[in-house]
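Hi P.,

Sorry for the delay on this. The queue was packed all week, but I finally got your sequence through. Input first:
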Amino acid sequence: MTKHVDDPSASPTAVVVVVFTLLVVITILALQAYFTRVNTQQLETKVISRTPEEKAEVFAEQHRELSEYRWVDREQGVVGIPVEQAMKIVVAENAQAGGTN
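Then the structure:
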């Protein structure tokens, strides 16, 4: 004899779907709030709270790295060259290759 099984009730299924949907939305909102808080904190720490002298020192160091020759890895023989020089080399190589870019 075949046993007759009723279809599952829709209301408990709907409750589970609503609960899980709310949990996902709450999780997303909590992560967004956390990201915003950490992002603001990092901005404050790394940019806003720096003195003008510290910022000038960082910019000067970045400028030196972009405009002077330097060793990147002395053991491997890798040298960093100024950005302007690198652009000239790329343009010259591209012209020799017959490229238009």
